[in-house]
Amino acid sequence: MLLGSAFSRYTPRSFGLKISSKAWYTSTSNPLLASLTAKLVPQNKVRHFLSLEDYSPAEIFALVEKASSLKKICKNLPLAQKDLDLKHSLHTSPNLSGKTVALMFTKRSTRTRIATESSVAFLGGSSMFLGSSDIQLGVNESLLDSSIVISSMVDAIMARVNGHEDIEELAKYSSVPVINALSDSSHPTQILADMLTLYEVFQKPAQSVQDALKGLKASWVGDSNNMLYEFLTAFPKCGISLAAATPQNYPIPQKYIQLATSSPQNAPIYITTSPAIAISGANVIITDTWISMGQEEEKKQRLLDFAGYQINDSLISAGNPHPDYIFMHCLPRKPDEVSDQIFYGDKSVVFQEAENRKYTIMAVLHSLLVDSTDH
């Protein structure tokens, strides 16, 4: 592995933190409001799913294991004993019967919405989609008020928001579990789907998720965004090393480098501006959109800034990843980010990855709402 001015290897140490400004008004930005509403915070401890930062490696592995079992059950694949045990519990438990999951989305969604609604239906529950045109989330009604009211009528909330402080505000006052369907700094259900995909591709017979993932090298080539932040939060502590290449003007916030290097047991991370260096020896190459929702006005400049970052045959030849590498992209994809040859080629597992959104979301719902032994 090449190190030097273009490539930095990070190990556990102290970093200064930068806190971004809040996009929406919340109780945490107003001490007086926080003191007045303290009594409204639910007294019973509710387990949420806001970021993989909040989950231990063992809990993350368990969710991926459960997702793998649920996929086999749903698709009538051969079942091991642990899969049969889960199938039996699904047949003998009420699961989500009589329960409602609210989907509160302030941004567009394809895979997340379909995965969630189909998962809730499989588990016997009902889902209620509440888009930005349906409710006044954070507009004419505060997040605080919305959280208290909506959580009093449903059994869980799946929320796709703008700022991460919005999902934290919803969770703070919700009396039911809140699941992060995407925020500007976190996308935990997507990273679980990616981990399930890695497990399916690289596992050996009867191998656990932990053993299958340990020692893999993942490479990120693209924007410094919520996907990369969540990878930094989860991959190193789960034994997956991560090399990330972002353009010079798109640095990774120190907070996420600190999280990735918070324990000497974590797998190492490498930061560079060179895509070719980042993918050297990689088992999996990952990219994402260069222009996220809300950044459309920056498109012209971003296309200039990301010149040389397309995943294509030339980059693969220059970077020399592992011969058995795979390619992943969370979708939707644009040709600027990855060539057709790579995206539709034999190394690509993007559609398997997309399908796995369903089973990992189902595993989170089951663990939070059905299987009390998981939390």
Strand order of the largest sheet: 1-8-7-6-9-10
Portion of residues in beta strands equals 5-15%
Helix- and strand-based class?
A: alpha/beta
Estimated helix fraction:
25-40%
Specify the CATH homologous superfamily of the largest domain.
Answer: Aspartate/ornithine carbamoyltransferase
Major sheet: size, sense and barrel closure? 6 strands, mixed
The total strand number stands at 10
Number of domains as seen in the coordinates: 2
Number of helices: 15
Element pattern in H and E: EHHHEHEHEHEHHEHEHEHEHHEHH
Shape: globular
* Low-pLDDT windows of residues: 1-5, 11-24
The top-level CATH class of the largest domain is Alpha Beta
Q: Any idea what the radius of gyration is?
A: 21 Å
Keywords: Transferase
Pfam family, one: OTCace
InterPro entries: Asp/Orn_carbamoyltranf_P-bd (IPR006132), Asp/Orn_carbamoylTrfase (IPR006130), Asp/Orn_carbamoylTrfase_sf (IPR036901), Asp_carbamoyltransf_Asp/Orn-bd (IPR006131), Orn/put_carbamltrans (IPR002292)
Protein name: ornithine carbamoyltransferase
Structure description:
Helices cover about 40% and strands about 15% of the residues. The protein is of the alpha/beta class. The strands form two sheets. Strands 1-8-7-6-9-10 form a six-stranded mixed sheet. A four-stranded parallel sheet has the order 3-2-4-5, sandwiched between helices. β2, α4 and β3 form a beta-alpha-beta unit. The N terminus is likely disordered.
Short synopsis of the structure:
The protein is an alpha/beta fold.
